[in-house]
Amino acid sequence: MKPIVSIIMGSTSDLPVMEKAAKLLDELHVPFEMNALSAHRTPEAVEAFAKGAKQRGIKVIIAAAGMAAALPGIIAANTTLPVIGVPIKGQVLDGMDALYSIIQMPPGIPVATVAINGAVNAAILAIQMLSLSDEELASQFAAYKENLKKKIEKANKELSEIKFEYKTN
After folding, report:
1. Beta-strand (E) ranges in the chain?
2. Quick check: is 157 in a domain?
3. What is the mean pLDDT of each run of 10 residues along the chain (169 residues)?
4. The domain spanning residue 114 has which CATH number?
5. Are strands 5-9 and 32-36 parallel, antiparallel or unpaired?
6. Contacting residues for 154 by C-beta, under 8 A, at least 6 apart
7. How large is the angle between the packed helices 119-131 and 15-27, nearest 10 degrees?
8. pTM of whole model > 0.85?
9. Is 21 exposed, middle or buried (0-12, 13-18, 19+ CB in 10 A)?
């Protein structure tokens, strides 16, 4: 089985956030790979990865980075594949530095950007892109969305059963 989604992170310290994307891809049986590549410490490896990803069968890249967050943009500059950026919350600016670095790409080099630490939404975007040409995945994703709805309906029912003196519903 060859991967069709690549999850790239600037360092393994991003793994606690990015494993959420991996879990969703795994749940929906989407083959993926995970690697750590640094735009600043391994720039040649990042360029080689990005330029070779399409030929290896990758269809969507999810790239996470904190602080200066150059990784998603460098990847996007070196591939025609869609790149989804995940800004990682840092110690100093709470991830705003990464968010601005990823979202402010120049014309012609877009990176779809999700919320700070928004790995699950990055996986969902990748799945939605892949679902355009994969009916089975589209069906699995529809079931996933239905399950989200059922979880909220269940939670709301449970809330309705909690009693307080001044609660009216």
Report:
1. 5-9, 32-36, 60-66, 83-88, 112-113
2. no
3. 96 96 97 97 97 98 95 98 97 93 96 98 98 97 95 92 86
4. 3.40.50.1970
5. parallel
6. none
7. 30
8. yes
9. buried
In a domain, 102, yes or no: yes
Please name the amino acid found at residue 59.
K
Residue 50 has which token pair?
């990005």
Is 155 part of a structural domain of the chain? no
Helix axes 119-131, 135-160, angle to 10 degrees: 140
Measured CA to CA, the distance from residue 145 to residue 143 in angstroms comes to 5
Which residue range is the domain that position 61 belongs to? 5-134
pLDDT, tens digit, 9 for 90 and up, residues 73-92: 999 999 999 999 999 999 88
| CA 89 – CA 86 distance, rounded (Å) | 10
Lookup: tokens for 52: 């070779």
Question: Does residue 82 lie within any of the structural domains?
Answer: yes
Q: In whole angstroms, what is the distance from residue 165 CA to residue 151 CA?
A: 27
CB 141 within 8 A of CB 28: yes
Distance between CA 120 and CA 138 in Å, rounded?
17
Domain count, the chain: 1
